[in-house]
Every structure is written in structure tokens, then in C-alpha cells.
Design brief:
It is built from 22 helices and 23 strands. By secondary structure, the chain is α/β, with parallel strands linked by helices. An eight-stranded mixed β-barrel has the order 14-15-17-18-19-20-21-22, surrounded by four helices. Strands 3-2-1-6-5-4 form a six-stranded antiparallel beta sheet, sandwiched between helices. Helix 14 packs parallel to helix 15. The relative contact order is 0.05. Bound molecules: ligand C2E and magnesium ion (MG) (2 copies). The site of one magnesium ion has 4 residues, from loops.
Length: 602
Amino acid sequence: MTETPQGITHTSDLLTFEDDTGSPRVLEMTLERLRRVELALRQSQLRLARAQKAAGMGSWEWNVQTGEVFWSDELFRLCGLNRDDHQQIQLEWVFGLVNPADLPAFKKVIFTAATSGQPFDLVYRIISSPGEEIVVNCRGEVECDADGRTLLVSGTTLDITARIRAESEIRQLSNYDALTGLPNRSLLHDRLMLTIAQAARDQQLVGVLFLDLDRFKTINDALGHRVGDKLLKAVARRLTACIRESDTLACLGGDEFVAVLAGVNCAEGITVAARKILMLISEPVYIDGQEIYTSGSIGIAVYPMDGDDSYTLLKHADLAMYQAKEMERNNFQFFSSEMNIKVLERMLLENSMRKALEREEFFLVYQPQVDARSGRITGMEALLRWQHPDLGLLAPDKFISLAEETGFIIPIGEWALQNACRQNKAWQDQGLPAVRVAVNLSAKQFGQYNLDEMIAATLMETGLEPEWLELEITESAIMKNAEHTAIILRKLKKMGISLAIDDFGTGYSSLAYLKHFPISRLKIDRSFVRDITTNPDDAAIAEIIIAMAQTLKLSVIAEGVETRDQMELLSFNNCVEMQGYLFSRPVPAEQFALLLRDGLKY
Ligand code: C2E
Ligand code: MG
Ligand code: MG
């Protein structure tokens, strides 16, 4: 190594070069050329930096072999960082800057690039300073050595925050109502379409509620647009608070709002929502010290009954809204008259149910359970009937589900149990053959906190021995709150009451649960019995249930036996007890007493 006049240390290459020519002039020229190259390089770096700055673009490199990361000045600037604070950076440090939600995607592309050599293009967010974020578009490429090993992953990072913001503002303008900030008609159609598709998959209903404020124009004219606008905003806020997250609330401009209720199981659910909305709307709004009263009219269309696309449903909800407006204020109407009648019927039924118990409109009928070998009556099922003052005699399928929804099933169920026990005891006291009485319990009744005490008290009061009482529960009722139900059932079993699984085979049919509950009897559902002589599948299911009951040492009874052929096939498969129209329909108490006295004729 020698010292040049400029004091620059040269490598031996250069010395060799100098030695070869032996001329100081050549040295001078070489140095000059070097200086020019250096200057050009610096200028080009500056130009690049200026260009990067203007474009909001940084560049970077990751040396896969050493793990070191290089960042351009602009990239530091973009991220709100000072290069001097970060001399030696590694990939882990970079990960720390990425928004945690985007980190998995970021790691995935960068590691995939390193291992597979694939270029990538990713948009993600960088936390630029506490509470601030920038959105960047990062593109990367891979450099490999002659053996195909990855040496370097490098690329550019472009700040696209402003563009994204502009795009989202455009989206906001084209998809949302400017005054209320709610989705507008165009976004409503998108959302409604998605909701319909989901409902079709889940076989559920979608309620489309079209709401129009009553007298809004009058308020607007009398109090001015400013007040009108504030009123609409207040209404929008109230509605937003009352719908679920999965629902959509839209404003179609003016005073028209649409609520889309997703994943509804029955018209009742939609009715409840409509009532709630009307109630919220009719509460006074205070604007600039003024109390403003308004009300609304709602038209309802329901997927799939009233249409299966968003345009038809909206049109029908709109039409129904006009119908509602023609009636009294603060009202709702379904598009289909069928729906309106259903809702009305239910409301009437609910009101009359309130009074039915005290008016003694309920009564029990009894259906014999028979030992098919001897023809002897071994038990009876007590079944509820309602003699409705206007609608005539109602079977349970017309009112049990409503009673369950409204909670009336608790007093009604208690009434049924008391009467069945009292009746059975009375027959025994009259000297008729003692048989057990089966009473149905609904799932809701297990929510009654003192169910076991209530049953114990009923037995005490009526004087019926527990061995003559059986309770029928469906599989789904048991599974609804399995732990709690198991505790109660064990208490009942301890009292000496027997328990039967009703409609067996239609619910979970999980064998595992049978062991956990103290069950005495399975009732083969009548849907299997119906086709037992014609459908081999049903015959096989019945056969399996019977065999299983035998293994588990449970009694078994077949429901809904209507023909002699069914009876014979069941008997052949070792099912002894049966219940069905073949032996007797459910009959009123007086008639059942005769059956007990004289025996069955079938
Ligand atoms: P379930 O407990 O499965 O009752 C048997 C139903 O099958 C009864 O209908 C009975 O009339 C009917 N049935 C009996 N034999 C035959 C037959 O050979 N063929 C046909 N097709 N049907 C037959 P019902 O009385 O209409 O009761 C329907 C359901 O209502 C009952 O089904 C039970 O789940 C419920 N239910 C009845 N009474 C009460 C009650 O007091 N409390 C509760 N929670 N539910 C009750
Ligand atoms: Mg039953
Ligand atoms: Mg049944």
C-alpha cells in the first residue's frame, strides 16, 4: 500500500496499474475518473432519493443469508422514523411496525418469497407513530445465486394512504346517505342480496321493514329543514341502537328508512321488531329545546313468501307501508294478507289464553296405553284440549308453542299435572283398576325453578302415589339444558316417578345421553310406526329402538298404532306396549272411566 498525494489509500490493484504504466499522468487521470464516477453515483443516489420522496416510495433489501435489512431514507421517513436511531435493523424489528392484523399475511409473503423465489405484491398497514397508521403497497423480488439459493429479497414500499382514503370517501359518498350516514339504496340492495343468500342456505326468513315517518313533511314545513334534518338524525340513531349487528338499517333519503332483519325463524320475531321500532319512534325528540312528537308506518315483506330478490322485496315492503298508512298512524302491515291474518290470530289467541285458565276452558282427554298381548290397559296419556269460546275445540298443536313462547305453559302445565293426578286418584278411589297416568312436560317447564317441589306438592295434595305418575319429556327438552335437567330428573326418579322419552328417534337420538338420565321408558315416535309395514327403513329403526331398549333394560311403547298390521309387526319385534287409534282415540274422562271398567274392544 502506498500513500497517494491526495492521501487516499489505494489497493494493490491500482498500484499494479501504476507500476504497469509507470506514469504519474495516468494516475492523475484515473483518480479524476474515479471522482467523476463517485459524483455521478452520489447524484444518481440523490435523484433516486428525490424521486422516492416525490412518489412516497421507499426501497428496502433483506439479506436472507445475514438477516440484515437495509431501508432507504425515504422508507424511514414514510414510517415517521429517524434513520440515525436505527443503524442495524433486522426483520423482527420490521415486523414490530406492521399492524398486528396484517402481520400474518406480511410474514407469509416474505417467507414464501425467500423460500420459493416468488415475487409478491401486498397492501398492509404500518403503525407510523402511536395512534397513526399509513397504508402501503409493498412489492418484492428475489435474487438468487448460481445454485438457486436465495440471497436477497428486495423491493419497494409505496405510501398509498391518501389514495385509499380518497377511495373510501368516494365509497362513502356513493354508498351512504349523506345526512344520516346510514347505507343508501345501492348498498342496501347489496346487503339485502347477501342476507337473502345466507337465509336461503340456513332456511330462514328475512324481514324487510319499510318505515316512513308520519307527517314528516308537515314538521319540515312548519319548523324548517334544519329541525327536520336533526329529527331524521335522531331517528336514525334510535333505530341503529335497536337493531342487531347482523341486521342492516338503511336510509333511502328523506324520511324513508329500511331495516333488514336477518336470520329470523318466524313472523313473530319480525312483529316484535316492528313493534319495538314503532315504540321508539313515538317517543318525543328534543330539538333546540322543542319537544317533537312523531310516529311511523311500517310495511313488511318477508323472504321467501313475498319475493326472493331484493327489488321485489323492497317494492312489496313499500306497498305494504302504504297500506299501513291508510290505517291508523303508528302501525305496521305485512305485505301478504296471509301473514297479517296469522299475526292477528296469534295476538287474539295470546289475549284469550290469558283468561282461559280462570274461565276453565282447558280440559284433559285420556288415551289408553295397552299391553297388546292381553289387551289390558296399563296406563294412559293425559292430553290437553282447549275449548275456545270463538274458535271451538283446539288441539295442542294450535296453542302449545304459543304457550311456550309466552310462558303461559308454566301455569297451564301445572294445571294439567294437577288435574291428571287428581283424576287418576279419583278413579282408583272408585275401585277402578289402578294404572299409571302419563303427563307431558315441555322444555320450558324445566326452567321453572321449583319444578320438582311443585310436582311433589301436587302428589301430596292429590294423594296419588308417585308410582302411578309418569312424565313424558322429549329428547330435545332434555338436551336443551342437560345438566340442570339431569339434576331435576334424578330428584323426580328418587321420589318414585317414572320418566319416558317422548317422540323417541326424532331428536338427537344420541345413545350416550340415555345413560346420564334416569329414564324408564322410550316412546317410539309415531312417524316410524306410520310406515312400519311399508317402509323397510322405518321398520329397521323401530326394530333397533326396541332391541336397544331391551339391552338398556328400558320399557318401550309404540305411539300412533292405527292398524292391526302395525300392531302385529311391532309385537313380532317384541314391543309389548302400544298406544294409538287402533285401541282408542284420546277420550274425555267420563268415557275413559268406562274403558277402565269394561276393557277395550278393538
Ligand atoms: P305426544 O305427547 O306425542 O302425544 C301423542 C299425540 O299423538 C296426541 O296428539 C295423540 O292424540 C296423537 N295420537 C295418538 N294416537 C294416534 C294415532 O294412532 N294416530 C295419530 N295420527 N295420532 C295419534 P295431541 O293430543 O294432539 O297432542 C299433540 C302433542 O301436544 C303431544 O304429543 C304433546 O307433545 C303435546 N301436549 C299435549 N298435551 C300436553 C300437555 O298437557 N302439556 C304439554 N307440555 N304438552 C302437551
Ligand atoms: Mg306425549
Ligand atoms: Mg309422542
